[in-house]
Amino acid sequence: MVWGWINVKKLNYNFKNPQLLELALTQSGANAEHNNERLEFIGDRVLGLSVAALLYEMFPNEHEGELARRHAVLVSTETLAYVASELGLNKKIHHGHMTAGRIQHICANAMEAVFGAIFIDGGFEMAQKIIVSIWRDLAAADVTAPKDAKTALQELVQKMDNGALPEYEYLAQTGASHKPTFNVRVTAMGQSADGCGASKKAASIAAADALLKKLAI
Which residues are catalytic? Predict the structure, then answer.
């Protein structure tokens, strides 16, 4: 199979072992045995540490909570999918069946896998350099640290519903045992919304974000 190259001019990296890039762009729905899940696993860690170090440098006067909220936004599925699109990676992924609801997740996972592949191919310093070159402008775009969705929802509900608090319900865990997906439902102001994520915290934030959009206040 001949693989199209992602926008290496923007990515600024040429693989010594192009097969790593091929693997990073192969979703499990296309190949159950040889896919990007392992590269995604390590790429997630490389990205997380690189962005954390960048934020530590860029915002010396912010507390841990503020840095954590910035970090959560910058490594979110939405941000990763956006970067993947900017690099042209979204058009190169080999996938099984990419439904509209899964496009962002598949692109985000592939983006992490590419960073994992760069780490394996060129080392941590190279992967970090590339991540920082992309994420510095993204980080600088927000002058103030964002509130995470759970905090924003809680403040809204307390204000609009006589000091009440959102109620979170942890639903059945899904997915493979080695890579579970957590599902959470949040209820507030007479409405509910569900969210999923790689951890209960991530799922709770996704649920809160969904309910905020639903309330649209």
Answer: 44, 112
